[in-house]
Amino acid sequence: METSEAVDDYLKAILELGGAEDSRVTTNALAERLGVRTPSVTGMLQKLASQHPALVRYERYRGVRLTANGKRRAWELVRHHRLIELFLHDVLKYSWDEVHEEAERLEHFISERFEDRVAAILGDPEVDPHGHAIPPKHEAGPYRAEVPLVAWPLHKPAVISSVSDRNAVALRELERLGLMPGVALTVEQSTPAAFAVRVQARSSPVRLGNDLAGYIQVAATDRRP
Ligand SMILES: [Zn+2]
C-alpha cells in the first residue's frame, strides 16, 4: 500500500511537470522524474483517479492532470517545502545546498499552525533560498517569467532569478562561482562545448559547463554586470 508521502510526491511531480500551462503529463515523464517503473506509475494514477474526491484525472495514453483537490494539496506542499527551506537557511543556518533534502522529508508532516508560525517569524516571505516564489497560503503560483540561462541571447543583460534546488553538488559549485539569485550577468559565449558569462564584480568571464548552466533561470534587467 502507498504511503501518503508517495501520493504527495506524485501530486508535486505532476504540478511541476505540467508547468504554468497545466499541460497533461505522460506516465513516462512521471516515471523518469520519480525514478519508478511505468507500470507502477499507471497503477498509482488509477488509484488517485478513482479516489473520492479524485486527486487526478487520468486517461490511459493521454496522460494525467491534477483535479482542483489535487492542485490544492500540491500547492500546499510547495508552500511547505519553500517555507521550510527558508527557515532552515535563515534561522537554523543550514547552507543552501543542505535545505532541499530536509524539506523533502518535512513538507509532508507540518501542521497548519507550524506553517503559520514559520511564515510569521520569517515575515511572510515571498522567495526561498534558491529564488523560487513561495505561494501565499491557500493559493496557487505565482509563476514568474523566467527563461533558462542556456536559451538567453548573447550580451543581453539578465539577472539570475532562480536556480534548481535538486542537486547539492551543483548548488555548491554555483555558490563558488558567485552565480546566485539576484546576480546580474551577460552571456559572452554559448556553444555546446563551452558557456561563459560576465558577472557583476568579476573582471574576467566565469566559465561553466552547459550542464551546470542548465540549473540557472534568468530574467531581463536594466542592470549591466
Ligand atoms: Zn527544495
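qc> The longest helix spans residues 68-90.
qc> done
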